[in-house]
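sanity check this record:
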Amino acid sequence: EGLRLLQETFSRGSARAISFSDRPLAGGAAGAVLYYLRDHLHSALGHVRPPVLSQTQDWMTLDRQTLRSLELVASSTGEKSSATLLGVLQQTLTPMGSRILTQWVTRPLIQLPAILRRQEAVADLAGQPARMQEVRSLCRGVRDIERTLGRLNVGVANARDLLQLSLFLSKIPALQSALAESGSEFLRELRELAGP
């Protein structure tokens, strides 16, 4: 039933077009979440992308005790502080950046090509301080676009949300320009994602 709902919602020709159709429990869980959203939001779910099964062989799975012992995001007493790895690294300027950094710290990569790809992007920006400053200044003041788009898609956005979205969209050409000369494959892909 879950796979059928996913198939209908995301216009897939058959259940096999769902990337995890061979895993009935995952299909059932994803279908249940989709049913819940459709039933409780009472609106179209056009903004929802098809679910993708995350493969844990791409990153290290850390349990709660390990996260606490290593003090990655919270101190051993459970408090968030600057004395954690996340606290030391946290220089993001947007809520989206903060979320992705938290994800990267709590789910460290274990595949060498992916690690090198990420390191190449960091080295590219660190090696070009003027470019990094330009990107940072463009990101300054950008609100939570992911949540703004979610509110917009479910019809509860207000004028402030629309202004924030307009501000962000006006910065995209400058961001693309700042990343145009990047030697990093990762940063070039980000630039292309932002393109028309």
User: Anything to note?
Assistant: Residues 38 and 186 are 34 Å apart (CA to CA). DSSP finds ten helices and no strands in the chain.
